[in-house]
Amino acid sequence: NLYAGLVSHLRASWLSRKTRPMEYRVAQLEALGHFLDEKKQAILEATAADMGKPPFETELSETLLCKNELHETLNNLSHWMKDKQVDRPLATRLDSAFIRKEPYGVVLIIAPWNYPIHLFLVPLIGAIAAGNCVIIKPSEISKNTERLVAEALPCYLDKDCFAVVTGGVQESTRLLENKFDYIFYTGSPSVGRIVMTAAAKHLTPVTLELGGKNPCYVSDTCDVPNVARRVVWGRFFNAGQTCIAPDYLLCSLEMQEKLMPALREAIVEFFGPNPQESPDFGRIVGDKQFQRVRKLLCSGRVAIGGQTDEAERYIAPTILVDVQPWDPIMQEEIFGPILPIVVVANMDEAIDFINAGPRPLAIYAFSSSDKVVNQVLERTSSGGFCGNDTLMHVTLTSLPFGGIGNSGLGMYHGKFTFDTFSHCRGCLKRGMGREALNAPRYPPYSQKKFGIVRATSKVARKDDCILL
Amino acid sequence: MERMQHVIARARAAFNSGRSRSLEFRIQQLKALERMVKEKEKEILAALHADLHKSGPNAYNHEILGVLIELALAMEKLPSWAAPQHVKKDLITMRDEVFINFEPLGVVLIIGAWNYPFLLIMHPLVGAIAAGNAVVVKPSEVSENTAKLMADLLPQYLDRELYPVVTGGVPETTELLTQRFDHILYTGNSAVGKIVMAAAAKHLTPVTLELGGKSPCYIDKDCDLAVACRRITWGKYMNCGQTCIAPDYILCDPSIQSQVVENIKATLQEFYGEDVKSSADYERIINKRHFKRVMGLLEGQKIAHGGENDEASCFIAPTILTDVSPDSKVMEEEIFGPVLPIVTVKSVEEAIEFINRREKPLALYVFSNNKKLIRRVLSETSSGGMTANDVFMHSLVPNLPFGGVGNSGMGAYHGRYSFETFSHRRACVIKDLKMEVVNKLRYPPGSQEKVDL
Predict the structure, then answer these.
(1) Inter-chain touch A427–B400, beta carbons under 8 Å
(2) Contact B401 A99 (CB under 8 A)
(3) Which family is it part of (chain B) (predicted)?
(4) Any domain includes B441
(5) What would the pLDDT profile of A193-249 be if each residue is shown by its tens digit?
(6) pLDDT-based confidence at A467, cuts 50/70/90?
(7) Of the partner residues A450, A458, A462, the one whose CB lies closest to the CB of residue B57
(8) In A1, A254, B212, B328, which residue has its Cα 20 to 30 A from B114's Cα atom?
(9) Positive or negative, the Cα torsion across B186, B188, B189, B192?
């Protein structure tokens, strides 16, 4: 077993209880902050080399959002760690009942390549805050960032408790043979199944952050230029390689006509007349992915963009029209800078279309009418929802981020990450005295006795008469 | 098998119709369930007696009372549990609506166990209905009278399409697990728990696994032994030891071992009289297979009390074993029977080490007058839940989550935790289409000034 030594080393550290004191966790979290600050330039360069990530995007997604999570955690850690007292029924009213948050032990975080720092670091913050030891497995596809993390992170964190493992599918498979106390995986639904099946062998709980096709409905009443900008921003951020990007647009033919010039204008406003020359537009991460996405351009008809450059793995910001539900581009998550438009007659048809598919990670609805936005929200199901914008619902540390059905299970961000990596232990401390009060519960049983038991255990309805 | 697929498809169609969504509907179903429990009390108690030789008051206390409490809590709190939760906003979202919506998952599956066959279906069912789901109920076939009763009763009181009962044994359950559900709550043992989770993985179905293990009970020298032993006796021999959170074994100093035995013996006399077999309040082992299994654990052991048995009636007397070796068979698996081994340890350190060398248990018990010692045992071990100076009681506080950790399970339920287990927390942000000027900061072309802002 390739990684047995590493896992047992971390388990020994775990058993030594080194990660438990708050001071230790705070020190490790602050070290993570130093990593983000001191390696900022290296992160910018690595992500640029991996997928042409524009520096502005890296600052926003890989640095700023991570620091927000770090600060939120450091600001609140002592509060989150405290035992939570709970209300008790009459029988236990004089006792102390509370929830104790406990770390699981040795946990595994598997991260993908598209936001290669953010998607291991934010879960890591919660895992450390909760007191666990952690093995981090970055993606081998974003190889420059993988190298950076493998070389630099151990210089900041306690090597006895935190380790980075590199490698591809084979290494990941071997890693998953070991017993972990929690596994946090971000990636595709098909690999999610493999991870959960491996976890089942050890009864290891999991959080799976997966994906799907995130629909974006635009109603006939809306501010077209603003919609266009917000959709273009969300779709083409990181060259479309975002799990919560609006994957496809649903609108009426009339709205499509109105949107087209606005979309074109927004693209030019953001990336200039030739996006290939813009420092603010990314590239596809690898050749395999480039081939896959390029093939999808054959669906429908190119209305805007469509240019590609294989040497640079460049695909222009593209809008496709005349797309049918059975076209190839509508069969898989696009994960590239292409936005197909599927025409629907009205909101009801859009909702039916959305509900016919697996539940996505995000649903977007644009309308000047609150009623329309709320209808889409109420009549669909998804991980998260954003009305009149894209991506923004994941930037708040107070909202849980996770999928449902095929798009995932579990959630994180802010306190939810801490909770994800904590076991909530229900605790009751009683005294040895007042044994007479326990008498009604002991055999020999009798009707009279359980009348008392019932009275002291029950939760009364507000309108129940106490005397009865 | 085809019928099962049809039943599940019907439940899904019923869920998709949207009728389980309104709070009025859910409360109406919960009220109907409450009526069922009250009107059919006699039949339920009769089934429990037929399956486990559970006496009326005992069965009522342990299986019916808990369900009524859970129902009352859910009906009372549902409006507040289900309400959208508004959360803290930041500068950028200051003018927006930001909230968490609690939404049903869809069609969920509840697989019950045979030891508290009514409670372990009904308790999670309340939460699943409260959360707005359709629920497929699969009671344990081992407690066959209760299973049959639930299959008869639930359709009489609840919406037949949304809450079907599926009966059967291993082949039927295996078939059931190939179908797609939106959550599975399973109560049972770790071996089958792994099978359930592996089946769920194929559909990316989240699971709550309420499993078991050996729940340790440490008795400190500094404690009121009479009281401690009475409480332990109550918990250990209730339901003939067939309780997932029963104190499985005792850890104590050798110097108090014989006192512990004497106190337990005295309490057993108090509870069940001279002839335990004729006490109406003492249950039986569920079936011959488990009878043989538990009797097998006595081989080679020093029986300090008990050991009497009768295979025909699946009776095993309350039994205490002393000076048990940590390597013996009775210390390997969860006993789930009226056999209480005592393993001696010389200190609380040794006890903690002993506990930590083994799989994390579902419950942990410690008896001591020394608060510091209790705090230490709590912080240096891990378990699903724990009670100090008593047994079971943490599972009766509706506001505490009930669940395991590691080999004893994952996820939790009871009260609000049931509602949350069967709900999806959907993050929602609703913005204005105006106020675009704020957004301009995030759009390309990017520049250092924008970043610095």
Answers:
(1) yes
(2) yes
(3) Belongs to the aldehyde dehydrogenase family.
(4) no
(5) 999 999 999 999 999 999 999 999 999 999 999 999 999 999 999 999 999 999 999
(6) very low
(7) A450
(8) B328
(9) negative
A400 and B CB contact within 8 Å? yes
Spatial separation of the C-alpha atoms in residues A86 and A171, rounded to whole Å: 45
Of residues A233, A443, A457, nearest to B396 (C-beta)? A457
Answer whether residue B401 is part of any domain. no
B134 and B238 inside one domain: no
Which residues are B236's β-sheet partners?
Answer: none
With cut-offs at 50, 70 and 90, classify the pLDDT of residue A430.
very high
Chain B residue nearest residue A63, CA to CA: B451
Residues B346, B361 within the same domain: yes
In this complex, the residue of A201, A405, A427 whose CB is nearest that of residue B182 is A405
- The predicted model scores a pTM of 0.96
Residues of chain A in contact with residue B270, where contact means CB-CB under 8 angstroms, are: 442
A435 is an active site residue: no
Contacts of B182 in chain A (CB under 8 A): 405
Domains of chain A: 3-211+410-423 (3.40.605.10), 215-406 (3.40.309.10)
Nearest residue on chain B to A428, judged by CA atoms?
B387
Interface test with B, best of A430, A434, A446 (most B CBs within 10 A): A430
Query: Any chain A CB within 8 A of the CB of B212?
Result: no
Residues B152 and B238 in one domain: no
Other CB atoms within a 10 A radius of the CB of residue A103 amount to 24
Q: What sign has the CA pseudo-torsion B4, B5, B8, B14?
A: negative
Q: For residue A74, give the amino acid letter.
A: L
Q: Is residue B231 part of a domain?
A: yes
A243 noted as active-site residue: yes
Residues B187 and B327 in one domain: no
In chain B, the residue whose alpha carbon lies closest to the alpha carbon of A90 is B397
Residue stretches of chain B with pLDDT short of 50: none
Containing domain of residue B290, as a range?
216-396
Q: Give residues 404 to 433 of A whose Cβ lies within 8 Å of B.
A: 404-406, 408-411, 423-432
Check which CATH number belongs to the domain holding B164 and give it: 3.40.605.10
Q: Is B37 domain-assigned?
A: yes
DSSP per residue over B133-197, as a string?
-EEEEE--SSSHHHHHHHHHHHHHHS-TTTS-B----HHHHHHHTTS--SEEEEES-HHHHHHHH
Q: Within this chain, do residues B50 and B177 fall inside the same structural domain, yes or no?
A: yes
Give the CA distances from residue A167 to residues A72, A107, A139, A175, A191, in Å, rounded to whole numbers and listed in that order. 32, 18, 8, 10, 16
pLDDT tens by residue, B307-339: 999 999 999 999 999 999 999 999 999 999 999
Are residues B241 and B199 both part of a single domain? no
Name residue, tokens 């007292």: A85
In chain B, pLDDT over 70 holds for what percent of residues?
98
Nearest CA-CA distance, residue B231 and chain A, Å: 9
Residue A465 pLDDT grade (very low, low, confident, very high; cuts 50, 70, 90): very low
Choose the closest CB to B204 out of A208, A453, A462: A208
Which residues touch A126 (CB under 8 Å, ≥6 apart)?
A73, A412, A416, A417, A418, A419, A420, A421
What's the CATH number where B258 sits?
A: 3.40.309.10
Interface test with B, best of A409, A419, A422, A438 (most B CBs within 10 A): A409
Shared domain for B164 and B271, answered yes or no, is no
How distant is the Cα of A292 from the closest Cα of chain B, in angstroms? 25
CA distance A53 to A55: 6
Beta bridge partners of A365: A217, A387
Q: Are residues B309 and B249 in the same domain?
A: yes
> Considering its fold, how many domains does chain B have in total?
2
Mutate to test the interface with A, among B12, B80, B91, B204 (most CBs of A within 10 A): B204
- A23: how many CB neighbours lie within 10 A of its CB? 8
